[in-house]
Predict the 3D structure of the following.
Amino acid sequence: MANQFTEVFREEHRQMRDMLLGLMDAIEANDIEAVRQGVGEMAAHAGPHFHYEEQVLYPALAEIYGADYVERLGAEHDAALEAVQELAELAEAEEITPEQAGYGLELIRRLLPHVSDRDGLAVIVEVLPEETVQEIVRGREKSRRSGKTLLDLARGKKKRRPVARQARGKASKAVAAAKSKVVPRKARAKAKPARRKP
């Protein structure tokens, strides 16, 4: 059972890695449609994964790692969800300026360590009791059936853990300026003056 879990867990991380790298390519190519599509696909794919990690995997690891480490994992999830929300906002722009592109790449770089660093947790799952692994697998299946996306999870987090805010760090002035210039398509449409009939 642990070997099956490891195989699926690692494949989920590989897929997330490829989606994030594809998003980087789309941003660098200034292909806003590919950015929108990439954000949507990544949010749909990774939502159930994040959900079962928080609900069953991380609590199961507390016995080995301790509560402080598991709390840190949860805080890093919160920071990752914030980054995904900001990527989704960026994807709503009509076009991507160089500043916004730099900001989008920074957001993706915040997400990539989740993929690489968390992949090693499977090694610890291999030493957990069989019934604990079965519970994790059941939690994974339940999360998949829920169909929650990363954006659904982010909206469900009303209050962020203080540690998540610390882990996120302060954005540079250029990044903050880029974020402030993102104007959603809907807002731009409302701002356009109505055409006069000749």
